[in-house]
Amino acid sequence: MKHVYFFGNGEAEGAGLGKEALGGKGSGLAEMTALGIPVPPGFTIDTAVCADYTRGISLDGVRSEVDAALGRVEKTAGRRFGDPANPLLVSVRSGARSSMPGMMDTILNLGLTSKTLPGLAGASGERFALDCRRRFVEMYSDVVLRVPRHRFEQVLTAKKKERGVASDTELTAADLADVVRQDEAIVREALGRDFPDDPRDQLWGAIGAVFKSWDNERAKTYRRLHRIPDDWGTAVNVQAMVFGNRGETSATGVAFTRDPSTGEKKFYGEFLPNAQGEDVVAGIRTPRPLRSDGSGKSLEETMPAAYRELLRVRDLLEKRFRDMQDLEFTIEDERLYLLQTRNGKRTGFAAVRIATDMVDEGLIGEDEALSRVEPEQLVQLLAPVFPAKEKEAAIKAGRFLGKGLPAGPGAACGRIAFTAERAVKMAAEGKPVVLVREETSPEDIAGMHASAGILTTRGGMTSHAAVVARGMGKTCVVGAGEIGVDEAAHALKAKGKSAKEGDWISIDGTTGEVISGELPTRPSEVLQVAVERTLAPDASPIYRGFERILTWADRRRRLGVRANADTPTDARVAVVFGAQGIGLCRTEHMFFEEKRILAVRQMILADSAEGRRKALEKILPMQRADFVGIFREMGERPVTIRLLDPPLHEFLPNEEPALGKTAAELGVSVGALKDRVRQLHEMNPMLGHRGCRLGITHPEIYETQVRAIFEAAADVVRGGGKPRPEIMIPLVGTSAEFDRLKGLVDDVARKIEAETGQGIAYKTGTMIEIPRAALRAAQIAENCDFFSFGTNDLTQMTFGYSRDDAASFLPAYIEKGILPEDPFATLDQAGVGELVAIATKRGREARKDLKIGVCGEHGGDPRSIEFFHATGLDYVSCSPYRVPVARLAAARAALSEGKGGVSSTA
Ligand code: ADP
Ligand code: MG
Ligand code: MG
After folding, report:
1. Whose CA is nearest to atom 7 of ligand 1?
2. Which ligand lies nearest to the CA atom of residue 642 in the structure?
């Protein structure tokens, strides 16, 4: 079987094979080559070889193919590998199916040996050749020979210091020769043998190391965070070197075909003259802009021909890939070469803008636009901003610390952590954290994930911090150069002020501003238009894009989307975001309000049904008023109201001084109150006297609640409304429980109809949250109008994991791979999902028109939504702010049906 694919000079064996086989990089190189874009020749070893290699199979099987492909590269480049007179140098580059920025290791300038070095020096100058050798020895030693990189960095830093220069470009040939000698000595000392001096040994060492790097810790962490399967493997690309470090007419750079922060259609990028490889991203010197900015330093101004060629390439690539591209290029003696293209990571703002713009440009259709926005990215458009006034005041008050580049929009305020480990620790203590570093590196991923925001003092819009933050949807400011970070002293300094670890800092990822101390935040533009109505829709392109995407989504989705809302305010927000009803209104939240809790406690303390009834009479009008408000907001949309669910002791205090205070308010002795608390105490409250069990033992509680619902509905009908109450009985495990309580609901309904003369159309259903209920769904459904899966409790009871105690072992389970992820965040399809499927099937068999929804946390989780769609549920219900996410996720689930999963832009 063929495993090695040549590309070069307009010809690409791998064109059309795709990322699965060639990895993202290899596939991009093949496609670019086939389009006639200048790409240095090379070949790709496919991902299947990685899978074999990590299983212990040797690389011998591909040796002859590699030799043949290398021969073609030599021919195309006009140089031979290992030739002392005119040596071919290559890069060995990893490239997985899904891009993993900075995760895998690349080796440049491979093929430089004691024999080929003079040849390169003769052709291109000694200083240049030594610079290449230095870089090669450092990279190869680090990645292949496992000699830590910092040892080489120390040598370079010491040399720069000794020579009194700031940048490595100022070192002479003699300086570099000395650095190389010292580097080689380090290797000799560490390994007890010389640095490999045979080009073929170097090549195979590098190929093996790239394959191995698939399993390094950084790569594993990245895969875990981004849910990339471990068995995909990486491809290896071997490619002829071109040199951006050949003096001032050479350069290396990166570009985005559109602005990755805002999505605006403008060419965006940075470059560094006389540099190689990762120099731009690593932030060793401040990069320059591509487009003319009047400084005379841009690529447009300094190398206009290469710039024009880059613009041509940009258009070709956008047409070919029909998506925003992230490019890596090198210019050697004013000639442009493309080294990488991939779909660019972007913020949520940019995703929406690019998708809608591309529809307007005729590049993609509406359905494809939906696949270009990850549902989770919409959350970013709802993220808060700093109010302009407060920010100005803070700046006036001298709290402005500096300005960096706006790499990840949003407003973040938190305590400063100077290392990733500290960020993880501080975040675990529940504090919002802003990670502040000179520049992040792949080792910082976990810390970045834990932080509310990320601030770096070096690096550009394409630096590691910027790229990773964008991928995570984090607020991020990069390259705030006026701020000095002393990581060792755990302090930062700017404008004569300083801050230490734990101090508050505020960063604005939309403008790049950094302000010391805390700042309040304000609702996003979308909320200002939709909820506050302080901004006109026409004044906000962000809002318009958001609306368009969701309108397209609504045309495609089959699943209904409702919201979990307990108050009229929540209900209003839910409707604004497109909720088609309320899927869960929790009545106990209403009980906790200050004025009501006393009456609730009186009810709990009463020792007879009569006493409870008296207390409940005080609660009744208040509940009624709540329901009137909610019915009014929801109009003709259904409102599912869950009767009291938590155990009663949750409403009583259990510690001094609250006990004493409550006893006084209730006019009972502290002793009596304590006795009642003791009586109600349960060993396992979540499995105790709660839910419908309360309704069975204390029917007056449910009667009062149902009365409040029907009286409110009658009230709203009188006002011309058409409320649609759906009464939901929680925690049912047997059909007898349900039937008895359904009888109670019907009795109250009849009574109120008699009293008010107002008939109300209503439904009675149950939550399915106990495994037994899922299994006995047929019997329960007989008498029942709807099911709503309470997937939080259902997960808890199916696994037998207490939701409130799982934090002590779940992280370890996930870390050790016992569970793929937190089943409380994303539905466990195999187990809990099977119960959902069984209950749906059995329920519908017993009752064809049974309505089925989900009201647990999973109702707002895109991957769970995909499952609910496939299982044939009628709707999902989630928090009001996740309704847009659910609408888009439901549409994508419908679109991906039969296509084997939702496609991703990543
Ligand atoms: P990553 O996966 O981290 O993006 P790459 O394989 O793209 O790593 O390599 C990093 C950088 O090294 C590239 O952006 C490019 O600047 C440089 N590079 C890689 N191969 C070559 C080459 N053949 N010639 C010149 N530069 C190269
Ligand atoms: Mg790259
Ligand atoms: Mg529950």
Report:
1. 340
2. 3
Q: What is the pLDDT of residues 828-853, one digit of tens each?
A: 999 999 999 999 999 999 999 999 99
Q: For residue range 76-111, what is the model confidence (pLDDT) as tens digits?
A: 999 999 999 999 999 999 999 887 765 567 899 999
DSSP letter string, 463-490 = SHHHHHHHHHT-EEEE--TTSEEETTTT
Dig out the tokens for 276 from the structure.
């190689």
CA distance 899 to 902: 8
- At 514, list the tokens: 């950094």
Query: CB–CB of 252/271 below 8 Å?
Result: yes
Say yes or no: CB of residue 108 within 6 Å of ligand 1: yes
Catalytic residue check, 50: no
Ligand having the closest approach to the CA of 768? 3
Distance CA 580, CA 585 (A): 14
User: Which of 50, 132, 413, 464 is labelled catalytic?
Assistant: 464
CA distance 420 to 447: 4
pLDDT in tens, 414-465: 999 999 999 999 999 988 999 999 988 877 888 998 999 999 998 777 778 8
Q: Is 464 a catalytic residue?
A: yes
Task: Give, using CA atoms, the residue closest to atom 8 of ligand 1.
Answer: 106
Residue 241's nearest CA partner among 109, 438, 355, 353 is 109
Question: What's the predicted TM-score (pTM) here?
Answer: 0.84
| Element housing 560 (H / E) | strand 560-564
Pairing mode, strands 80-81 and 87-88: parallel
Is residue 44 left, alpha or beta, with left meaning phi > 0 and alpha meaning psi from -120 to 50? beta
Gap between the Cα atoms of 466 and 447, Å rounded: 14
Q: Give the residue among 194, 156, 149 at the shortest CA–CA distance from 175.
A: 156
Residue 719 backbone dihedrals phi, psi, to 5 degrees = -80, 10
Find the 863 Cα to ligand 1 centroid distance in Å.
34
Q: Do the Cβ atoms of 583 and 630 come closer than 8 Å?
A: no
Q: Comparing C-alpha atoms, which of 370, 305, 297 is closest to residue 336? A: 305
Phi-psi category of residue 330: left, alpha or beta, with phi > 0 → left and psi -120 to 50 → alpha: beta
CA distance 870 to 559: 10
End-to-end Cα, the chain, rounded Å: 29
Q: How many whole angstroms separate alpha carbon 477 and alpha carbon 32?
A: 32
Per-residue buried b or exposed e for 861-888, using 16+ beta carbons within 10 Å of the residue's own CB: bbbbbbbbbebebbbbbbbbbbbbbbbb
């307007």: which residue's tokens?
360
289: left (phi over 0), alpha (psi -120 to 50) or beta: beta
